[in-house]
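Researcher: We plan to redesign the surface later, but first we want a full-length starting point. Tokens attached.
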């Protein structure tokens, strides 16, 4: 009897423990309702464990929230960071070697995306870029994910970054249960942006130089040129005290423009964008900015771009106002660093005390799980 009673007591205790664990599991699977950056009202599981990102470079943003390991909940991604920002990929790979085995699903807006594999990973949330909303709607992928019980959330660090960066991070902070981290970076972001805003608003229009932004300068040496309209880096130029040349040429996000138009207008300042595209395109002549870049190689590439046929005659080249910046700033929450570099180039006296290099280091020290290295912007040396 004593043995039987003891056994029965242990069984009841075990059952109670199991019930408690099950109840705790159910309690933690909390669903919240959010409005994403596309204005869609979505029910999503809070603090999800399995997330697929529609673009690998979303890690720039997620690293600000899951600071110990931005890949801890990522079960699949697109390999764009591997291909077009390999310096950043290797930087993260060094700290988080497990990402070498992270499956890539390609673009979620095309037939190449393996929806069955996404579902098989018990995915709870798929993150997509606002700029691809129409493509996602036309492909029907949102409805297919919804039918599988997977929430789709749109964020934006590219289409309208100055307006949508903080709201996107706050949205992700709610979903990932990282509101404190989102708020801390949001405060820092606002502080860095206002450092520029407060001074630029006093600059009269006639003192704002015309700036041509050459998008992906030299990516394909045979082709020129693409530029930004009044969005993205074009918008940052305006906010930094310049007048973006492309805003008068296109109402869109970006556009192809002719060399003849550039040469005819002879803009005061030229800013190209570059990144380590050598692995994706070995023939590229772009400035290979990134975590593995070095200053001497940056100067060599800048000099070669400035020496293209007809370019040495431009005022920006002759007056030492020929610059370049890390292309990936256009798609990350870190664009305030680029804005500080722009401000110093456009108004060196007014922004003499602003140090974008110190800001970039502080960003890494305070918010990111990787350390700062490499080169992310540069100006053509006067003796080049």
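Model: Full-length starting sequence:
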């Amino acid at each position: 009897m004593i043995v039987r009673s003891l056994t029965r007591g242990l069984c009841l205790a075990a059952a109670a423990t199991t019930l408690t664990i099950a109840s705790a599991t159910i309690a933690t699977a909390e669903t919240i309702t959010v409005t994403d950056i596309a204005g869609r009202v979505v029910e999503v599981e809070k603090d999800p464990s399995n997330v697929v990102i529609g673009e690998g470079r979303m890690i720039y943003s997620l690293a600000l929230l899951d600071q110990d390991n931005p890949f801890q909940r990522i079960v699949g991604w697109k390999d764009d960071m591997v291909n077009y920002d390999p310096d950043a990929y290797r930087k993260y790979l060094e700290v988080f070697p497990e990402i070498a085995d992270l499956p890539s699903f390609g673009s979620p807006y095309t037939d190449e995306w393996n929806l069955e594999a996404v579902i098989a990973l018990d995915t709870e949330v798929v993150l997509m870029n606002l700029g691809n909303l129409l493509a996602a709607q036309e492909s029907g992928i949102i409805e297919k994910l919804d039918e599988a019980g997977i929430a789709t959330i749109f964020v934006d660090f590219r289409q309208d970054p100055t307006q949508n960066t903080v709201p996107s991070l706050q949205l992700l902070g709610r979903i990932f249960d990282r509101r404190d981290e989102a708020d801390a970076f949001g405060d820092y972001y606002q502080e860095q942006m206002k450092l520029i805003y407060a001074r630029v608003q006093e600059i009269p229009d006639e003192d704002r130089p015309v700036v041509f932004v050459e998008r992906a300068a030299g990516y394909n040496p045979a082709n020129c040129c693409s530029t930004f309209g009044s969005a993205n880096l074009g918008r940052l130029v305006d906010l930094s005290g310049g007048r973006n040349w492309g805003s008068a040429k296109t109402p869109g996000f970006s556009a192809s423009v002719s060399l003849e138009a550039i040469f005819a207008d002879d803009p005061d300042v030229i800013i190209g964008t570059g990144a380590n595209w050598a692995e994706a395109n070995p023939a590229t002549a772009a400035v290979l900015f990134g975590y593995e870049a070095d200053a001497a190689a940056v100067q060599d590439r800048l000099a070669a771009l400035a020496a293209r046929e007809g370019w040495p005659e431009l005022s920006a080249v002759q007056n030492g106002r020929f610059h370049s910046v890390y292309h990936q700033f256009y798609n990350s929450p870190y664009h305030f660093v680029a804005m500080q570099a722009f401000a110093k180039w456009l108004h060196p006296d007014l922004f003499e005390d602003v140090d974008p290099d110190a800001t970039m280091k502080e960003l890494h020290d305070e918010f990111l799980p990787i350390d700062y290295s490499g080169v992310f912007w540069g100006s053509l040396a006067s003796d080049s």
